[in-house]
Design brief:
This protein is about 35% helix and about 25% strand. It has seven helices and nine strands; from the N terminus they run E-E-E-H-E-H-E-H-E-E-E-E-H-H-H-H. The strands form two sheets. The chain has a five-stranded mixed sheet with strand order 3-2-1-4-5, sandwiched between helices. Strands 8-7-6-9 form a four-stranded mixed sheet. A hairpin with a 3-residue loop joins strand 7 and strand 8. The longest helix has 18 residues. The protein starts with 5 loop residues before the first strand and ends with a helix. About 50% of the residues are buried.
């Protein structure tokens, strides 16, 4: 079976990243600095497409980190993905950021039981627990809480990861799962592109207009930066 071409966008944390799964290759670009996400995404996407030698319309789907994560970040990723997908008539794959972290953790450690904890600011974290068995399944679904309230279910060989551990080290100090946590792992488009293979095959692609972020906090209205990113994506498409 031929591998699909999947473009992935991830801007839910301080790291903005894009990835393009093209055949057996995964090309990536990343940019740090949360204030520049809306300006950096489209140029990175264009670089990836040029490097792969394909047009956007030759992609099979556009994946994006739907959250949880920075509200502005997930809205930016969703809007850019929608704009490009609409123009190229492609399906959109809204994927969970914490599952992408679990995939990165498995790639590094071969762990099949993973606790992903992402800094949510304001003294809170997003977290979820996953088990891998020819694909990821949720043991505990994405949640928002104080660091001290993270309570994974017992699992042999549980490997923790995420920047929540470096953001709140004192709150996690007494937790046994925190001792070997991989605190440098944050959501990245590379894992979203890889997760997109099964998501696309499972029929999880949705029309651009139906793509929605995953919110665990509430807020209304687009910021000016988000509107600029959405409009620019539509114009490029």
């Amino acid at each position: 079976m031929d591998m699909p071409n999947i473009l992935a966008i991830e801007t839910s944390s301080e790291l903005a990243s894009c990835a393009l799964l093209a055949g057996d290759d995964v090309l990536v670009r990343s940019s740090s600095g949360v204030r520049t996400h809306s300006q950096s995404i489209l140029p990175m996407v264009q670089e990836l497409l040029r490097e792969a030698g394909i047009a956007l319309a030759q992609c099979d789907a556009i994946a994006f980190g739907a959250g949880p994560g920075s509200f502005t970040g997930v809205r930016t990723a969703c809007g850019v993905a929608q704009g490009m997908a609409y123009g190229a008539s492609l399906p959109v794959l809204p994927l969970v950021t914490l599952e992408a972290m679990a995939e990165a953790c498995r790639a590094r450690t071969n762990a099949t039981e993973v606790l992903a904890v992402l800094d949510a600011r304001m003294g809170e974290v997003y977290w979820a627990q996953y088990r891998y068995d020819n694909g990821w399944c949720e043991v505990a679904p994405p949640a928002l809480c104080a660091p001290g309230d993270v309570a994974p279910l017992p699992a042999e060989g549980l490997q923790a990861c995420g920047n929540g551990f470096s953001a709140y080290p004192e709150a996690f100090a007494a937790q046994p799962f925190a001792a070997a946590a991989l605190a440098d792992i944050v959501p990245h488009a590379r894992e979203l592109a890889l997760l997109g293979i099964k998501a696309l095959a499972a029929g999880q692609g949705v029309p651009a207009a139906q793509a929605q972020p995953l919110y665990l906090r509430n807020k209304v209205a687009y910021t000016s930066a988000e509107r600029q990113a959405i409009n620019a994506a539509k114009a490029e498409a």
